[in-house]
User: Fold these one by one.
Assistant:
Number 1:
Amino acid sequence: MKRNSGVTKRKLLLAVLLITFLFRFLFVMNSMFHIQRAFATWPDTWEYETVAWNLTNGRGYSLHEHSPYFPTMLVTPSYPYLITAIYAVSGGRNFQLVLLTNLILAVISAGLIFGLTINLTKSEKAAFWSAFLFGTNPNAALYTGQLIAETLYITLILLSFLIVIQSKWARWSKVAIFGVVSGLLLLTKPAGVVPVLFALLYALWKHRDARWLIALPIALMVVFPWLNRNHERFGMWKFSSVTDMTLTIYHAAPVMSDIHDVPLDSAAIMLYGRELYEKVANRYPNPFALDTTGQIARRFIQKNLSKYTRLLLTGLPVVVFMPMSMAEYARFIGRQPGRSPVAQEFLRDISKFRIWSAL
C-alpha cells in the first residue's frame, strides 16, 4: 500500500508540475514574442529591469537611465541582482532568459505547495488540487510573464514555510537555511516581514524549540549590507522607500479623497503640497521626500482611522475576489489603457456605493 501511495504521489506531483509549466508557458511565450508585454505591470517591471541594467554596466544601484545615475532605495535588491546575474551569464540584455527563470520558479512553487499540503493534510488529492489552483491562477501567471519580483517572492515564501513545517525539530542546518531564506525574502519585498514572522511563530508553536529564534540574527546578517548601504547613501537606517510610497499614494491619499470627494491627485496635493507631491509621484521619486510624506501619511491615517478602516475593509474583498490587474492584462494582450490609478478610484466609488461610476 505504501509503495502504491508513493507512486500515486509522484504521478500527481508530475501531473501538476506539467500543468503549471504548460499554463504559465502560454503567458511567458506571449511576452517572449512581444517583449513590450513583459513590462505590462508598469512601472514596477521598468524599475527592476533598469536597476539591473545599470548594475550590469557598472553604473550603480540606480533607477536613472541617463547620467548622473543617482542611487535609489525604492527597489529592493534581490530580484534586480538575479536579473543582473542572468545578464552576466547570457552576455547581454536577455529578457527571454529572465522570463524562463520566472517559469522555472513558478513550477518550483507549485511543487512546494504540493509538499506543504501533503505535510499539513496527508492528502494527495488535496495537495494536487492546491497546486493545480496555484498553477492555473491567472494573476500569478500574468506575473510569471513579467520582469517583476512576485514569482521569486512567492517561491521564497513557500520555501520558508516548507522548511518549518517539514522539520520535526530545530536542527541547526534547518534554522540557518530558514534564516537565509527569510533574509532573501525581506530583500525581495519589504512585505516579506509578514510571512517571515508567521513562519517563525508557527515554528515556535509547533516545535516548542527556542533555537528557531536564531534565524532572526541570521536574517539580519543577510539584510545588513543593504541597510548599511542605505545609511551610507542617504543617512537613513531604512530598509526601503516602498512602504513610504505605498502609504503616501495608495493609503493616505484615498482617505483624503474620500473625505473631500476629490480625485486622487487633488487629494494628494491637499495632503502633501504640490511641490512635495511632485517629488514623490514621478519616475524618479526622491527618497528624502518619501520619508517626509510617509510620516505625514502615517499621522493622517491615525487621525482618520475609522475612515481608513472602512476603505480597507471595502478594498480587501475586491482584491481577493476580482483581478486588480485588469489594466496590466490589457497591456499584456496588446492594448494600451491609461496608467492612471484606476483601482483606487474604483475602491473609492464602491465604498460610497457609486456602482455606475465604478463600472
Number 2:
Amino acid sequence: MVLATPRGRRYCRRLRFWRRREFLQTGATATAATAVARRAEAAEGRPRLRTALCDLLGIEYPILQSGMGGVAGPALAAAVSNAGGLGVLGCAFLPPDEVRRRIRETRTLTDRPFGVNLLLHSDMLPPVDMSRVPAGVVQAVQDALNHFRRRLGLPAASARPEGLPDIVPAAIEVILEEKAPVFSIGLGKPPASLVERFHRAGAKVIAMVAALDDARAVAQTGVDALVVQGHEAGGHRSTWVKRPSPQHADVGTIALVPQVVQALRAPVIAAGGIASGAGVVAALALGAQGAMLGTRFVATRESLAADFYKQALVGRDGDSTVITDAFTGLYARVIRNRFVDEYAASGAPVLPGYVQSVAAADIFGAARERQDTDHYGLWAGQSVGLVRDVPEAAAVVRAVVEEARAVLRRLAADVTVT
C-alpha cells in the first residue's frame, strides 16, 4: 500500500499539516481538527488508542487525570483536556465561589470536555460534630502534634479544632449551574437523585471506588462509569466510610479491575499504579475502558503542587510510599517521611476525617513555607517509581499515548495467537 512507504508517510504528514491549517484559518473547532489528524493517523497505519469511553466522555484518548485537591487546577485540567484526555479540576474543600471561578477559568483555556471533582465522604455530609469527639482523644492528638510543633518552633496547642465548613451542597449547586461536562466523585456514594440531576443538566457522572462491594453499590446509583482504584494508588482510599484498618479496601489494581468488570456492566476506568502507556494497555487488557493517572500528573509544570513536592517525587522508587491516616484521619498513600513514622510511633489516635488536617494545619503550613519534606504530606502512589522528570502535562499525555501504541505494536509482533 502506497501510504505505508516513506513517500506515502511524508504525504500524510503534509496532508495533516495543511488540513490543520485550513481548519484554524476558517475558525473550525479543535475537535474537528483532531478528527482530521485521526484520519491521517489511520492512513499511516498507526494503531488507534480509542475505546467506547472516549465516545461517552467526548475525549480523544482513554486517559483521565485524577481530580486531586490542591494539585489539579484550571491550567492542569485544561492542558490534559487539550491534549486529548480528560482533565479534572480538584475542588474539594473550596468555597462555592472559588469552584465557580475555577470552572470559568478552565473554560477560557479549553473548549474540550473536563471534569470537576468533589469528595462526598460521610464525615463531610454533614460535617462531623466536633463536640462529640471525646476530650481525651483531642488531647492525645494535640500532644502528638506538639512533638512536631516543638521541632518546628511553633507554639503548642491543646484546643479542640474547629470542624469542617458545610460547603459541599453549595459546591454541587455551582457545578450544576455552570454545566460542567463531567462530575467526578471521590470517597462517596452519590444519591441516585443527585446523579439524575446531573444527567438532566447534560453531564456525565463518574465515581471512584476501592472495593467490589462499593462498586456494586455505586453502580446502582446510575453513574456513567466507575473509577476502580487499586491499592497502589496515591492519596485517599476511595471509600465513603473509614475502614477498620489499612488492610481493608486494599486490593491491587490487577486483581480488582477484572472483578468489577466481570460483576458489573458499567464502564470501568482503572486507577492505581498507572503512569505509562504500558500501564494503560494493561488496564485495557484487564477489561477497563480507560485509565486514570494521578501521581504522574502531580509532577508536571501545570500542577499546583509546590515545586519542592514535585521534585520530591522525581527519582523515588515504588517502595517509598506507605498508607497512613496521620495527615487527614483517613487512610491515604503518601511518601514515607518523619511525620508518618513518628506519629505512628506515638500511638496517638487521629481525629475524624479531614478534621485531623485542620488540627495539624499549622505544622503543614510551616513545612510548606520551609520546603520541608519531613513534615509535609507528599501524596503519591507506587507509580512514583516511574516519575523521572517534571514535564508539561500535554507531554505526559503524548508520551503515554505513543508508548501505548508502541506496546500494542510490539504485542502484535511478538505474541502469536493460535
Number 3:
Amino acid sequence: MDATNQVDEFSPDSSQERWLSYLALTTVVLAVCATLAGFKEGNFSIDSILSQSQAANQWSYYQSKSIKTYLYEMRLDMLAAELETGVQNQTQAQKEFLEKKIADYKREVDRYGTEKNQIMSDAKKFETNRDMAQRRSSSFGISVIFLQMGILLSSIAALMRKKSLWLAGIAIGAFGIVYFADGFFLFLT
C-alpha cells in the first residue's frame, strides 16, 4: 500500500475534523472562563477578608467610643449630683465651674453619640461589602468547578473521539458560564 494513500485510523475525516475543531474551540473558551473565574474568586475572597477586617476595626472603634461615652455620662451624673447637693456650701464661682463642666460633658456625650452613628454606618458598609464579595466569590468558585468538569469531559471526548462526551462537557460548561456571569451581575439567588 502506498504511504500517501494510507489512512491513519486516528486522522479525522472532514466531518470529524469539523466537530473536533469546535471541540478545541469550546475547550479553549471554557479554559479561559475558568482561568478568569479563578482569578476573580481569589480577588473577591481577599476583598471579603479585608472588608471583614475593616468592619471589625470599626466595631472596635465603636466600642471604644461607647466606653468613653459611658465614662462621660457617669462623670456628668456625678457633677450634676454634686451641684444639687452642695448648693448651700458652694460659692458662685464653684457653681459656675460645675455648670460649665456639666455643659462640656454634655457636648462630649453628644459628640461621641454622633461619632458612634458614623462609625456604625461605616461598619455596616464594610459588612455589606464583605457579604457582596463573599457572594461573588462563591459564584466564581462554583463556576470554576463546572468549567473544569466541562474541560475534563471535552478532553476525554477528544481522546476517545466521542461526540456525546463533548456535548455533555458543553452542557456542564454552560452551567459554569452561567455562574461565571452571575459572579459579575449577581442575577441568581
